[in-house]
Amino acid sequence: QVQLVEFGGGLVQAGDSLRLSCAASGLTFRNYAMGWFRQAPGKEREFVTAINWSGDITYYADSVKGRFTISRDNAKTIVYLHMNSLKPEDTADYYCAAAYGRNWYLPSLRSDHMNYWGKGTLVTVSS
Q: How far apart, in whole angstroms, are the C-alpha atoms of residue 22 and residue 97?
């Protein structure tokens, strides 16, 4: 079966950096655009960033642009989220997700377009 498993969440202070990893299995990894979403308590899940099948195209939500970087290693079937200059408002459960289709137009991606989801990893940023 398909599995997406996130690693790397934790408690950090504002201004710190953190790297999340998502290990994928049970799917042809390069056939999927990959994305990160997040959900804070009491709020709806929101788009953070996405990357196309080959890793040469990325797209970021305005709230994280310039601070977060998404990357992928197709040989290892891992997608990463490098987070810099973290803010308390970044506190959320972060979810890795996969959308089938090598040529997705990344700005159009929505939660309901994603075929598979990880269970999430919690990132808490203190002041």
A: 9
DSSP three-state, residue 69:
strand
Sheet containing 68-73: order of strands: 3-7, 18-25, 78-83, 68-73
| CA neighbours closer than 13 Å in the CB half-sphere of residue 85 | 7
- Tokens at residue 32, please? 């999927």
CA–CA dist 108, 104 (Å, integer): 8
In this structure, are residues 95 and 38 in contact, taking their beta carbons and an 8 Å threshold?
Answer: yes
Question: Considering only CA atoms, which of 81, 48, 78 is closest in space to residue 62?
Answer: 48
Give the SS3 label for residue 42.
coil
Check: CB of residue 73 under 8 Å from CB of residue 91: no
pLDDT in tens, the chain (127 residues): 999 999 999 999 999 999 999 999 999 999 999 999 999 999 999 999 999 999 999 999 999 999 999 999 999 999 999 999 999 999 999 999 999 987 788 888 889 999 999 999 999 999 9
